[in-house]
């Protein structure tokens, strides 16, 4: 496969998440965002690592159908605790319940990343985050900030939610939605290198 300078090879990013686009910008990958929507319900008994990869592939392939000439990236981030998959909260109640579950404990954040092109490939990033105790009054105030609404597990490590994070082992960018070392590796496999 030829090597391309990332600056002159455009890729598609099948995502509505402004964070994923900003993270790709951070490593100098020129991209066109492709808004797609996929069914994010887990299959019965589906393992979390299979779930995030399946969704990442579904997003990348949906994007590739819209822009068939571009290699297209898709990703999915989920918070895992007690074997349960926490996606974005459905409402306030759900968010408060998620924050109570995460309070004072360690959880995993899984991000699957997929690249759909003439051939498809994928990677998995696994991080461990330990949260401080989050009392219900703080959780309520955090919900009122508006930040939890579109974040897996109802918090954002890159935002106000950082005050709850005592320890991270893994990929900060992965917790934010796009693990950059793994994504760069995936793109390099496709001949797209930067820097
Ligand atoms: C845990 C955590 C998640 N998140 C975000 C990353 C993802 O955008 C979101 C999880 O939802 P996803 O379904 O992975 O992504 P999305 O719906 O935002 O975007 P799209 O499917 O269109 O690509 O949670 C943070 O921004 N910070 C965090 O600390």
Automatic annotation (TrEMBL):
It holds the Pfam family Maf. The active site is at residue 76. Its EC number is 3.6.1.9. Its main location: cytoplasm. GO terms for molecular function: hydrolase activity. It catalyses: dTTP + H2O = dTMP + diphosphate + H(+); UTP + H2O = UMP + diphosphate + H(+). It is found in: Cytoplasm. The record marks 19, 77, 158 as: Important for substrate specificity. Keywords: Cytoplasm, Hydrolase, Nucleotide metabolism. Its cofactor is a divalent metal cation. Signal peptide: none annotated. Nucleoside triphosphate pyrophosphatase that hydrolyzes dTTP and UTP. May have a dual role in cell division arrest and in preventing the incorporation of modified nucleotides into cellular nucleic acids. Belongs to the Maf family. YhdE subfamily. HAMAP family: Maf. This is dTTP/UTP pyrophosphatase. It comes from Spectribacter acetivorans.
């Amino acid at each position: 496969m030829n090597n391309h300078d990332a600056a002159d090879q455009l890729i598609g990013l099948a995502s509505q998440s402004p964070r994923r686009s900003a993270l790709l910008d951070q490593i100098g990958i020129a991209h066109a965002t492709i808004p797609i929507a996929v069914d994010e319900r887990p299959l019965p008994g589906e393992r979390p690592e299979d779930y995030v990869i399946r969704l990442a592939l579904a997003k990348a392939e949906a994007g590739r159908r819209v822009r068939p000439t571009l290699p297209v990236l898709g990703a999915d981030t989920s918070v895992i605790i007690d074997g349960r998959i926490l996606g974005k909260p459905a409402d306030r109640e759900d968010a408060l319940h998620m924050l109570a579950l995460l309070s004072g404990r360690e959880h995993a954040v899984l991000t699957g990343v997929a690249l759909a092109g003439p051939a498809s490939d994928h990677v998995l990033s696994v991080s461990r985050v330990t949260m401080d105790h989050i009392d219900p009054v703080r959780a309520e105030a955090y919900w009122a900030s508006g930040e939890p609404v579109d974040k897996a597990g109802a918090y954002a490590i890159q935002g106000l939610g950082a005050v709850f994070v005592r320890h991270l082992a893994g990929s900060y960018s992965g917790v934010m939605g796009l693990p950059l070392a793994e994504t760069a590796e995936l793109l390099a496999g496709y001949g797209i290198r930067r820097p």
